Amino acid sequence: MKPCAVKLTAGKPARTVTTKGPKGGTFTLNDTGCTTRLIATIKGSANTYKVTAGAHGKGQCVAMFIDYNSGSKRLGAAKLIIVNGVDKVHK
């Protein structure tokens, strides 16, 4: 498993990430605190996900993408490190 990183900045508070695995696999997202700690939100499905800076502001978190085949056998996983360098998001 090779970790990837996404850095969110004031100029680019959102990024799109894509997953790649064997044909027929389905990725699921295991968000280990990005959303609950308000560092980033991750939304998407299939192979495309949008990572957006969260309301809390600066911080770092990790999300795991796990690939399963149609028989629910784990095919692999990828770690996404998210670094939010954006000051608090105002809504």
Can you walk through the features of this model?
This protein is mostly beta strands and 91 residues long. It has one domain (4-84): Immunoglobulin-like. It has no helices and seven strands. It has a four-stranded mixed sheet with strand order 1-7-6-3, with no helix packed on it. A three-stranded antiparallel sheet has the order 2-5-4, with no helix packed on it. A hairpin with a 5-residue loop joins strand 6 (59-68) and strand 7 (74-84).
CATH class: Mainly Beta
Structural class estimated from helices and strands: mainly beta
How helical, in percent, are the residues? under 10%
- In quaternary terms, these chains amount to single chain
| Percentage of β-strand residues | over 45%
| Mean pLDDT over all positions | 88
How are the strands ordered across the major sheet? 1-7-6-3
Task: Write a concise synopsis of the structure shown.
The protein is mostly beta strands and 91 residues long.
Give a topology summary.
Blueprint: E1 4-8, E2 14-18, E3 26-31, E4 40-45, E5 48-53, E6 59-68, E7 74-84
Parallel strand pairs: 1-7
Antiparallel strand pairs: 2-5, 3-6, 4-5, 6-7
Give short descriptive properties of this protein:
91 residues, mainly beta, Immunoglobulin-like, 4-stranded mixed β-sheet, 3-stranded antiparallel β-sheet, elongated
